[in-house]
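User: quick one, fold this
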Amino acid sequence: MSHERHASSATALMAEEDNMFVDILQEAPLSVHRQRRSIFGSVMYCFLLAGYAVLAAAAPWIFVLIPKLLPTLLCSSNVILLIVTAIFQQYLVYQVRKVRLQGYYTFSQKLKNIARLPFAAIAYGTALMLLVLVWRPYIHILSVSTLLRIVMFVEVICAGCFMSMYIGCVHQYNSLNGQPDVLKSLYSALQPSSSLEELRYHDGGRLSDQQMALLQYQRENLHFLSEEVLRLQECLSKYQRSDDGSTPQVDLAHLLASRDQELRALSAEMNQVHSELRLARCLIVERDSEIQRIRVTNNEYVEENERLRAILGEWSARAAKLERALEAERLSNMELQKSIAKLQNKSAGTSAEDDQV
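Assistant:
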């Protein structure tokens, strides 16, 4: 019983030591100036896509007076939509960059992948319309204008679906209340060893990118805190010049001290991030050198295998020659034995005739 109590107490002590600094993660500095992303531009672009969908569906009735120019007008409007989508994609990239600078690296990666899809859909649709125009003499199933309308309608619907996904993700980002996910790599050293190994080895491909995002996030925080410190210093000097009571001065001095302390903490965290980034680069260099060494060893094994195969082929050729020589020798021995037997028979017959005589 005493041994079991001792073992259980030792296990509890080890667990307590592992989780000693994990609660620091709850005290990580939040980006208190996180800005909400606007979806006004995305909604206006969705209205534009809806207008193009109506244009594709009702084109014969809209351009009833000029039916011969219908394919030309559809292609021209699609090119205009492609240009507008390219400009709007730059706006989406700017929004995604702002999300990344707020410290939400994983979320920005998701938004970046979605932001590229509307332009890709419109570009593929434009390419299909070009193919329809090129193969116009060989298309007999539907008219060219009908095919162009179908392609335009499908591409607009696909782009609208992708924009709906983007608007939903932005709305989810605006409703987030948690900490930026780049802070997880900052406090990775405070995690148990298993999670740290998983971060540095199993997910090593994204480590440098995450550390760079964390550096950008900390730089933005430092810039914001510097502006806050300057603003508080100006307020403090203004209150000190006034003839009011000392209570506002005390409050502002306390706020200024807390901001200054947080600024120093962020500077220390940035230094830690730099050290972790150097460690990650060293690990990547070691892994590359190990891979290069394995490749060199593999090449040596391949050369040795080829040399052994050449030796084996040479010995096989020699064995074949020896087998042929042995077969020829065996045949010559058999002929020689036959000749000896014939000579013996002749000599025996001759001796028998001599005896009879």
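User: anything notable?
Assistant: The radius of gyration is 42 Å.
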